[in-house]
Design goal:
By secondary structure, this protein is of the alpha/beta class. The chain is 47% helix and 12% strand. It has two domains: 140 residues, Rossmann fold (3-Layer(aba) Sandwich); 66 residues. It has nine helices and six strands.
């Protein structure tokens, strides 16, 4: 899709706008090892983009102890907050450029993230990108997390948008499934994972620079 065809751009946050997916993964790995478990990076990476409920379930399947799973989550949360407090959260390459370009073309921008309001607002505020988003839907504002399409349908409802000219930008298969289930043209941005989904309405790129080049071509 070319930039003059876009009527609304919806961005995921973690791993798409900023490097928090890597921080989340490191936090989980540290938490597991702190409590005497080494599940390996394949397991940790399989949790990327998943909901709290889904990740709690797969961890508990391995530990057999829901209370321990909660302790692990709290340990990871403390790590994430420390990373935010020490300015370790950074924008992904090309994000500022694509947000600025969309703004210059008067295209509304929304954020649709399963992160809860307090954390999402803290991160976007620290990165100085809050002002780009005219619509914000966070994980604690919906009932069903990705891959359920509810979060995208909520954005469409709040903006009064039809599917025409609306794009979603995601970094995980879970997010792509949510966006496509809502009927959106979707861009998958990831430099380490290949998307195993055959769909003419999904286009994959390694980074935001490549996506911006397409939109402006």
């Amino acid at each position: 899709m070319k930039i003059d065809q876009i009527k609304l751009a919806i961005f995921d946050m973690d791993g798409t706008l900023c490097n928090t997916e890597d921080i989340h993964a490191k936090g989980w790995d540290d938490a597991f090892k702190h409590y005497g478990y080494d599940f390996g990076l394949d397991f940790v990476n399989s949790m990327r983009g998943k909901s709290i409920v889904d990740n709690n379930r797969v961890i508990t399947e391995r530990t057999g102890d829901p209370a321990l799973t909660q302790k692990m989550r709290e340990y990871r949360e403390a790590y994430i907050l420390e990373m935010i407090a020490t300015n370790q959260v950074q924008l992904m390459p090309g994000v500022k450029e694509i947000l600025e370009t969309l703004k210059e073309h008067n295209i509304p921008i929304a954020i649709a993230t399963t992160s809860y309001t307090e954390r999402a607002e803290k991160i976007t505020g620290q990165l100085d990108i809050q002002h780009y988003f005219s619509t914000k839907v966070y994980g604690d504002m919906i009932t069903h997390q990705k891959p359920n399409p509810e979060i995208y349908l909520r954005v469409l409802e709040e903006t009064g948008s039809t599917l025409d000219g609306v794009i979603a930008i995601e970094d995980s298969p879970t997010g792509v499934t949510a966006a496509r289930s809502a009927g959106l043209k979707t861009y998958f941005i990831n430099d380490w994972l290949t998307l195993d989904i055959e769909d003419s309405e999904v286009t994959s790129y390694k980074n935001m620079h490549q996506l911006l080049d397409e939109l402006l071509s």
